[in-house]
Amino acid sequence: QVQLAESGGGLVQPGGSLRLSCAASGSIFSIYATGWYRQAPGKARDLVASISKDGTTNYADSVKGRFTISRDNAKNMVYLQMNSLKPEDTAVYYCNANRVIFSTRTNYWGQGTQVTVSS
């Protein structure tokens, strides 16, 4: 199993930047694919960005060109750099780690960190 803890959320003005961090512990981090999801009030939890074990990245269309996901396996960390933030980016952001074994995907989640974009 892996435990995840997010940090770095907060209140930022439109056009500003934030960097979210996710610290992983409890397992060999490099064997997991990782990602960031977000959930706004009354909405489903949606994928924001993902990064595979070998570093391949994927982004939701709404954040392409503004957000960058990265990972440091030596430090057991995943990051989400968020630039040009918009009010619609306001949500609770969750770190995810997952592993597929025999076609079964197991997900691990952090507790979430609030990001609020407002003037």
Q: If you had to describe this structure to a student in words, what would you say it looks like?
A:
The protein is globular. The strands form two sheets. Strands 2, 4, 5, 6, 9, 10 and 11 form a seven-stranded mixed beta sheet that branches. Strands 1-3-8-7 form a four-stranded antiparallel beta sheet, with no helix packed on it. It contains no helices and eleven strands. It has strands at residues 3-7, 10-12, 18-25, 33-39, 46-51, 57-59, 67-72, 77-82, 91-101, 104-109, 113-117. A hairpin with a 5-residue loop joins β5 and β6 (57-59).
Q: Total number of β-strand segments?
A: 11
Contiguous uncertain segments of 5+ residues: none
What is the share of helical residues?
under 10%
Strand percentage:
over 45%
- Figure out the total of helices: 0
Helix-strand pattern: EEEEEEEEEEE
Radius of gyration: 14 Å
Mean pLDDT, rounded to whole units?
Answer: 95
Q: What's the overall geometry?
A: globular
Classification by helices and strands? mainly beta
- Largest beta sheet, briefly? 7 strands, mixed
Cα-to-Cα separation, first versus last residue: 40 Å
